[in-house]
Fold this sequence. Notes:
Layout: H1 2-29, E1 46-51, E2 57-63, E3 73-77, H2 84-94, E4 100-104, H3 117-132, E5 139-144, H4 146-157, E6 162-166, H5 172-179, H6 185-188, H7 195-199, E7 206-211, H8 219-228, E8 232-238, H9 251-263
Parallel strand pairs: 3-4, 3-5, 5-6, 6-7, 7-8
Antiparallel strand pairs: 1-2, 2-4
Amino acid sequence: MWLLKLALAAAGLYAAVVAVAYVLQSWLIFPAGFAAFGPDLPAGARHVELATQDGERFVLVRLPARQAEPRPLLLGFAGNAWNADALALMLHQLFPEHEVAALHYRGYAPSSGSPSASALFEDARRAHDHLATDAKAGIVAIGLSLGAAVAVDLATVRPLRGIVMVTPFDSLKELAAHHYPWLPVRLLLRHRMEAAETLRDLDVPTAVIVAENDTIVPAARSAPLREAARDLRSHIAIAAGHNDLYGHPDFAGALRASVAAVTHD
C-alpha cells in the first residue's frame, strides 16, 4: 500500500511541475524583464511607435547611416533577453554606413502587450512595411538566437536582400525538449518557431554564425538550419559560448563578412 501511495504522491508532484511549466512557459521563453534597460543612443536615433491590429503598440528604434550612399537597411531582431536599443547600437557601431533598425518585441518595454511567437512574427512584418519605403537598397534581417526565427518567418512574406542568423535554433520545440527532457514539452509548448522547416522553402541569401561552445543552442539544434538553407552564402563558427560570443575578437569581422555575403550579387 505504501508503494502505491508513494507512486501517487510522485505522480501528483510531477503533474504539479508540468502544470507550473505550462503556465510559466511564456516567461521562460520571453523574459522581458531582463531586457528592460538599454544604453544611451547617439544623436539622430529615433523611436517610432507603431500600432498592432489588436490595439497594442510596439516600438521600433532607428539609427541613421553616417553616409548618403544607398546601402541595405539592417533590421535587427534580438535574442529573448536582449534590449533592442542595445542591438541597434551594436549594429550601428559595426555598420556605420548602413541605416539600422531594431524591434522592441511586444511586451518588452517600451512596447505594450504580451510577447508570443505569433505576436513577434506579426510585429516584424509591420516593422518591415514601415521601413520599406525608405530602404531603397532593400532590407537585410539580422536575427540573434530567438530573433533568427523571427527573421526567417519575415522572409516568407516579405522580400529581403538576405538573412543573417547568429546562434540560431532549428525548432523552439526541439530546443525546449533538449533542455527539459523530463517534461512533455512537445505537447505543452504554445509558441511555435520552426525556423529550419520554414527556411527549406525560401530562396533567400542566408548566412549563419554559430558559437562552437554553445550550450544554450547546441550544434545539434543549429546544424539543421545550415542544411535547410537553399542559398547559404556563409557559415562561420567561432570558438565562444552563446552569451560571450559578442565580445569575441572574431565576432565583428564575422558579422561584417556575413552581411557582405548576403548582399553581394
